[in-house]
Amino acid sequence: MINRYIALKYRYRFLFMLPLLTLLISCEKDNTGNEEPVTPGVVLITSTDSIVLSEKKLDEKALTVTWTEGNNRGEGTSLSYLFKMDVADNDFQTAIPTVEVEPGVFSMSFTHEQLEKLLVDEWHKQTSVFSEIEIRVIAKVTADHFIKPEVSTIKIKVKPYAPEVIEASRVFITGDAVSNASSVEMTQTVENKYAYVYKGIFKAGKIRFPISLDANSDIVSARNPDTQVTDGTTMPVKLAEDGIDHNDFVIPIAGEYTIVVDLKDKTATFRSQATAIVSPYSHIYMIGEALPGTSKDWAIAAPLEMTQSLANPNVFTYKGALEYGTEGTNSGRIKFFVEKGSYTNDCFSPSQAARTPIVYGKANPMVLAVKGKPDYYFQLLTANVTLIVLDTKNLTVTFL
């Protein structure tokens, strides 16, 4: 009984001492013998824990992440920092490429536009609702032996915006770079109702894209003043309402350019002959029961021809009435030849079945059937198809 009492007495005394022991362990002495807390090492700090992105602040900083310096691991060692970011609770499986931060830098910043593109385009998050992202910084130790790195992780909430489409039924080009006219009108593309294209000769100089020729027209313009055109590159645009605060693009070298303005993506692309898209195909022809009438269905010597896109010559379109078929029968079929005259010419078709039902409104995969083999067809089983968009580079065909 006495032994049990002694055991209990020391057990409770030990429990009482635990907090004190923990405090002592968490301290170390400096050179003067004074006790001080151990440095916590790398710690992440964000400028905010909740962000509402704005389309009107695309170039402004939305988020800044900073971190403290990691613990000094002694002579002969050095620290470098790795930055990761992903949607939360995903174990960084879809993270942005890991950034090895330059020496002496302890922060990373992101604009509204950069976060919007990550959340919507990269991680496919819904607009106008909050999503959580996770950020991690790793203090990596370089030494002659392995030393465990320090890791700090933090989460924040971000709400992407729903992009507003620039509303326009016509788009023009004006400016002193326009040759032999005060303005030219762009053409709406068949494959993308938001895109407008123009191909022509331009002088070196400035251009902008008004949506009417009125004096106070809204203008699709560069984001920044006198933005020099980068040949072959897609560049961002903004809408200058009533023409106020519009900015010009500057074409540095005279020549022929194909210009595409996309009012949904809010971009402009300039291609000279040096960067022009060159397609290996100049014609695409169609055969099958899905085509209107009876004379052109199987007329391989004179088949219906698709229209090559001026904006992207790899894309071919057909706009018009099409006839649908019945499942299980040879009806409503269609495939696409690169040359006319023979059923044994190369053609684009599905790869899986002799009759492959289309998926309406989505890109259907296709293959190049060499010498017409295998003899497979897409099959239309729906009555509302009036547009075909065929992409020879990405090997897809979309029925709309």
List the helices and strands and how they pair.
Blueprint: H1 2-25, E1 27-29, E2 35-37, E3 44-46, E4 50-52, E5 61-67, E6 78-87, E7 99-100, E8 107-111, H2 112-122, E9 131-142, E10 150-159, E11 172-174, E12 183-185, E13 187-188, E14 195-202, E15 205-207, E16 209-210, E17 219-222, E18 227-228, E19 234-240, E20 249-251, E21 255-262, E22 267-272, E23 285-287, E24 304-305, E25 307-308, E26 315-319, E27 333-337, E28 347-349, E29 355-357, E30 363-365, E31 367-369, E32 377-379, E33 387-391, E34 396-399
Parallel strand pairs: 4-10, 18-20, 29-32
Antiparallel strand pairs: 1-2, 3-5, 5-8, 6-7, 6-9, 9-10, 11-12, 13-14, 14-21, 15-20, 16-17, 17-19, 19-22, 21-22, 23-24, 23-27, 25-26, 26-33, 27-28, 27-32, 28-31, 30-34, 33-34
